[in-house]
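Replying to the earlier thread about multi-chain prediction with a worked example.

Input:
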Amino acid sequence: MSGVLVIAEHRQGALREATLECLGAALELAPSLGGQVTTLLLADAPGSLAGELTGRTHGLKLYVHPDLAAFNPELYLPVLADAVAALQPSLVLMPHSSQGMDLAPALAGRLGLPLVTDCTGLSWPDGALSVQRAVYGGKAMQELALKPTATVVATLQAGAYQAPLPNAVETASESTTLTDLSPRHARRFLEYLAGVVEDVDIAEADILVSVGRGIGGPDNIPQAQALADALGATLSCSRPVADAGWLPKSRQVGTSGKTVRPKIYLALGISGAFQHQAGMKNSGTIIAVNSDSRAPIFQVAHYGIVADLFEVLPKLAERFGG
Amino acid sequence: MKILVLVKNVPEVAEAELEIDQGALDLEDLEMVVNEWDNYAVEEAVRITEASGGEVHLMTLGGEDDEDVLRRGLAMGAHAASHLCDEAFEGSDPATVARIFAAAVKGGGYDLILTGVQSADLGQASIGVLLAQELGLPHATMAIALEPSAGEVVVTRELENNTSEKVALPLPAVVTVQSGINQPRYVSIMGIRKVRKMTIEQIEADDLSLAEDALGAAASMVASQSLVLPPMGDGAQMLEGGLDSVCDQAAAILREKGGLA
Ligand SMILES: Cc1cc2nc3c(=O)[nH]c(=O)nc-3n(C[C@H](O)[C@H](O)[C@H](O)COP(=O)(O)OP(=O)(O)OC[C@H]3O[C@@H](n4cnc5c(N)ncnc54)[C@H](O)[C@@H]3O)c2cc1C
Ligand SMILES: Nc1ncnc2c1ncn2[C@@H]1O[C@H](COP(=O)(O)O)[C@@H](O)[C@H]1O
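Result:
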């Protein structure tokens, strides 16, 4: 048992950034595991995807088949099972993404391997894996020490590790053309769907007034809109607000919505779950209003106000003629 | 169509002050609620059976008080519920939880099994897919739309950055449901009262054909675990003072950083 096996992720011809973060983590961990980093890329054509991985992994194993253009766990699993058997890695690593959530538990389940998901930190202090993860919507951290085992499957939270520099290591590549993919079930990829039609592009706004579940209901949206109008700002939101239909989906900030970098991000009644933070933490100035002084949003905000947003909203609008 | 939905009771933490006692969360003062994602899954299952017939069965694994989450689901229109409750289940890791559910599900004749994408407490996002593997069924995660037809379900999976994909699964299959797939109906206290006489099947470890050492902490991959409150880090500069003063300060920051007059 040694080294780290990284499963590369790509979509519609582009490598997913989160794969590079896994490589960053893998290169950091591999020495303590007495091994190397091997990356598996399953694709319909070698193309440019391999180029981005070269220099950031010791080994690159490319598996090519026309049906591997889009992700399908049923096509991945047999290839991964063979690779794990051949390489005997200490760790199989992939992003905690829509793909990783579909694949990692399936791989762990099929091979009977332990699984840890959405990790923010991994280490091997005493020959066994030790993991950190955010729980309870980011309001607590869980520290897990695993019993010693041969191979662990883990998924990594986006942004937890950094991509390695290009040319960090020498890469030895090897390509295999697959003839038979032997899936166990007949899951079929049908098509990609583009996102919803936008009323406004929140990524273009200089100032965003963003509301979370704390806004309470659709009847209170006009109050937030009034402040946005007074500031010349655009209204955006967290996922539950879009889920409930209080604002259109196109206004949602976060991993499954939009990534925004306005000059000012004013977060009202947003707890600051990781999936939300990922979409707004690089904003110029973040001001958060929340009645809970321990809300995780205050960890990424530059300025914090612990208060009832309904008291702050009208007073703030007043100061801008609203 | 016969549909099984896994529902979990979780503590509501968004507005609560969490207390960690000896590395574990103190649940004493926390309100328990249905896991947000599971609520969407129950609604979806009930809608499918309302549209084209069939029945919805609920299952939860938890302590005695967690029966509430089943009553709530019955009030939404589910037809039957099972409560997996036994001290022997305590300390189980996700693989073990999936194994317990698999033992309880076997022979149930379900066409479709729904779970939430993740539970709001530990957010492991794994039970549904692990269960699919235990049962030898196909799966798809992150469903934001379901179109079941004879022998097949077409699942729209939410991907990152505002894209999604459609995949087709042969039935029976396991699907994990993402929030926003529907607008779950409102559940009133009256509604819950109406179902209070429905029997809930109780399932203990002895009812399942599982070896004793395949359960609980003994079978878990975890050697030790603890919770800590996250370091506040550098964190935000908190604006202090009365409401007016705080709003004055915020307005000044908005003017300076936003270039507002
Ligand atoms: C796969 C996946 C993808 C996801 N993608 C996204 C995404 O893209 N974007 C996203 O936002 N989330 C996303 N989520 C959901 C995310 O995990 C959280 O559930 C969500 O961000 C919580 O939204 P919230 O902060 O508005 O609500 P809550 O967590 O419920 O927080 C509400 C906050 O409002 C505060 N509050 C309540 N009343 C008041 C008041 N009167 N005054 C002041 N404060 C008040 C509370 O203290 C609390 O902090 C995703 C989840 C999954 C599993
Ligand atoms: N103890 C449990 N009881 C019932 N359902 C559960 C339980 N644990 C997990 N689940 C189901 O599995 C989904 C994913 O949970 P998790 O893998 O723990 O994040 C949840 O949304 C539930 O549908």
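Chain A has two domains: 4-177, 202-321.

Feel free to reuse this layout for your own posts.
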